[in-house]
């Protein structure tokens, strides 16, 4: 058993949640029971995930996409009220959005690179001067089809590949979740290929540039960060941990 305040303090420091500006209200978003025996981990804060956490008798839920955003309506009405009613059974909610994308050890992007046996060599994708993604180098150039195989197997996903570049990749730019035109063009400056989650319509640009792009799914590419936190917290706080898998189809 661990104290909620100790867990929150450790997460805030370890993930450095105040080091980058974000549209998410990162940190403890809902305070439940003071004592924690079991922690659930998931990508999204939603009623389906909350119900699964309470069914599993979890005392805390740690997510990548939280319930409260700076761009949203703060009113506790409708679906937000229904979500809080579920959490009010004693489950604390903790969210880490960009801090979990950019973390160099347990971050989504770092974990994707680790999965592919790459080595982080430089920062990639910046939000007000702070990087979110990373560029990786492979000791030996890795075939594109091998990258696809590993991602599909490890993430249980289907990769959409725009194969317009070489057969092998030496440097890979990685930014999980939602891709964008800016990130795509930035990736072409620093790497041989680009890995992200969401598909964007950049086919002709990629073809003209002879550049490889892989879309492994927004949800799938953001499962790895919360999963990487699980063994760390289980060991440090002597708590039981579970992953709640609720794919979005995207």
What is the topology?
Blueprint: E1 2-3, H1 4-14, E2 27-30, E3 35-36, E4 38-44, H2 47-55, E5 60-65, H3 78-87, E6 92-95, H4 98-102, H5 108-115, E7 119-127, E8 130-143, H6 144-155, E9 160-162, E10 168-175, H7 181-190, E11 193-196, H8 203-209, E12 212-215, H9 218-221, H10 224-237, E13 240-243
Parallel strand pairs: 4-5, 4-13, 5-6, 10-11, 11-12
Antiparallel strand pairs: 1-3, 2-6, 7-8, 8-10, 9-12
Helix pairs in contact: 2-3, 5-10
Element pattern in H and E: EHEEEHEHEHHEEHEEHEHEHHE
Question: How is the largest sheet built, in terms of strand order?
Answer: 7-8-10-11-12-9
CATH class of the largest domain: Alpha Beta
Give the CATH superfamily of the largest domain: NIF3 (NGG1p interacting factor 3)-like
Task: Supply the helix-strand structural class.
Answer: alpha/beta
Largest sheet: 6 strands, mixed
Note poorly predicted spans: none
Distance between the termini: 36 Å
Count of discrete structural domains: 2
Question: If you compute it from the alpha carbons, what radius of gyration comes out, rounded to the nearest whole angstrom?
Answer: 19 Å
State the shape: elongated
CATH architecture group name of the largest domain: 3-Layer(aba) Sandwich
Q: Into which percentage range does the β-strand content fall?
A: 25-35%
Residue-averaged pLDDT: 97
Please tell me about this protein's structure.
This protein is an alpha/beta fold and 250 residues long. The protein has 2 domains: 2-96, NIF3 (NGG1p interacting factor 3)-like (Udp-n-acetylmuramoylalanyl-d-glutamate--2,6- Diaminopimelate Ligase, Chain: A, domain 1); 103-221, NIF3 (NGG1p interacting factor 3)-like (Udp-n-acetylmuramoylalanyl-d-glutamate--2,6- Diaminopimelate Ligase, Chain: A, domain 1), CATH 3.40.1390.30. 36% of the residues lie in helices and 28% in strands. The chain is built from 10 helices and 13 strands. It has helices spanning 4-14, 47-55, 78-87, 98-102, 108-115, 144-155, 181-190, 203-209, 218-221, 224-237; strands at residues 2-3, 27-30, 35-36, 38-44, 60-65, 92-95, 119-127, 130-143, 160-162, 168-175, 193-196, 212-215, 240-243. It has a 6-stranded mixed sheet, with helices on both faces. Strand 10, helix 7 (181-190) and strand 11 (193-196) form a beta-alpha-beta unit. It starts with a strand and ends in a 7-residue tail after the last strand.
